[in-house]
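Example record for the data management plan.
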Amino acid sequence: MSPMTRTLSDWLAHIERIHPKSIDMGLDRIREVAQRLRLKRPAKKVITVGGTNGKGSTVAFIEAIARAAGWKVGAYTSPHLLQYNERVRIDGTDAGDADLIAAFEAIEAARVLRRAQDDREVALTYFEYGTLAALWLFERAGLDLAILEVGLGGRLDATNLVDADVAVITTVDLDHQDYLGDDREAIGAEKAGIARAWKPLVVGDDLPPSSVLGHAYRIGASTWRIGSDFFFEKLPAIAADGDAPPPHWRWREVGYRLDLPMPRLTAPVQLRNAAVAIAALRALGRPPRPLPKAAIAEGVGQALVRGRLQRFERGGVEIVIDVAHNPQAAGSLAAWLAAEPANGTVHAVYAALADKDVTGVVQALASCVGQWHLAGLAETGPRGGSVQALAQRLAGTPAADGFRHEQVLPALEAALQKARPGDRILVFGSFHTAAAAIDWLAQD
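Corresponding structural encoding:
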């Protein structure tokens, strides 16, 4: 690429072509380029967040609370919904094109560096390249806290290049079995790899696999377990004196208690994510700056992340967008639908990648959905697929008899035509599905 054509889009296209595989787990390549870049710590403190579900929301809570306390915070998340810039945030602002380009230029120079003893270029994956860019930008930003969201697994994920001061495992369930293993024990072992010796490991799963706890024990990582070391509970809506305060909830550990406003993120599971986020910040021990109770309350009430029960309204029809893409996430979605039932029919617009447990997802939601619209994701690349292929994989489920559409937007338009005021349209199944719907609805 010539200097005149190095736009961010050019760079993204370039880094997609560098490595023959989109996923190639391991730390050797990224470690070598990081050494060439002479990368140091990305911040005074680092929290790495892994888990099957809830990672993005947990990062958002940690970020919002720390920023409310006056900390300078960087957050690295993936995948993005609408723009690549969303993956890197500094002080609540997405990284600009120029900053990302500068990072990519530095990484490319290090990646292709010729040495007398080694003239080999390092073939980084797309995610490895992006992770290095985030770390490069964070190091230059003078951060109090960097929050790194694991991309896949943990032990061999690019984010595990950095030694976390606190590691978080939100939940452990079946997903990405081709890379992580076929059961919770194997998957838990991979996710536990982000923990560090003698550093806290916060666990948000009520029944974590023994592989997680065993690994923590072997390396001397102190575990902070939800339901054992810290607790959360929704408080009664009616106070003892008969007044009706705003809905609120309580977080507590031994000798410390917080009564907090309900999160803006409305799914029932978000109380758990918020509780885990608070535990992660508390586990830092000596934080870079004070963490007042008021800042925790403010951050919990302000945290927001797109694509998590994001709501729109068209002609009296509520449209809800969610990135849920595996059975555990679908179960959480079903719990929300039960807690906040629609006045009319729930119309589901569902499109999923080819490597997902689509039958498990549909089974989790079958009792909540009145009408199904399936959509293809063939345009998203090798992991996408046609609507016919999706319907075949769903044979024997209620969704298999639903309407079929080649893409997400025609499916959403058809659902809107069939819906009546008071009905709800639920669009879900992948980040690609959510992004297509959000982009279209935001422009309308």
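Summary line stored alongside the record: The first helix runs from residue 8 to 18.
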